[in-house]
Design brief:
single chain; 59 residues; 46% helix
Length: 59
C-alpha cells in the first residue's frame, strides 16, 4: 500500500452576483415552505447556493 500524498487545500471568497442571490433565495423559500425540512438545513442550502466560498485543492 502506497502512502497518501496530501495536498494543501485553499479556500477562496468571492462576491456573489445578483443571479446567485435570486437562485439562493428561491431555493431557501421553497425549502422553507416544506414542513419536513428543518430551517437550518434551508439556511445551509442558501449559503451553499450563493457560491461565494470556493474550496480548491492546490498542487
Amino acid at each position: 500500500m502506497e502512502p497518501q500524498i496530501w495536498r494543501s487545500i485553499s479556500v477562496r471568497w468571492r462576491r456573489p452576483h445578483a443571479s446567485d442571490f435570486i437562485v439562493a433565495g428561491a431555493l431557501y423559500y421553497l425549502l422553507y415552505l416544506q414542513p419536513e425540512v428543518h430551517k437550518l438545513v434551508a439556511a445551509a442550502v442558501w449559503i451553499a447556493a450563493l457560491r461565494c466560498i470556493r474550496i480548491e485543492r492546490t498542487v
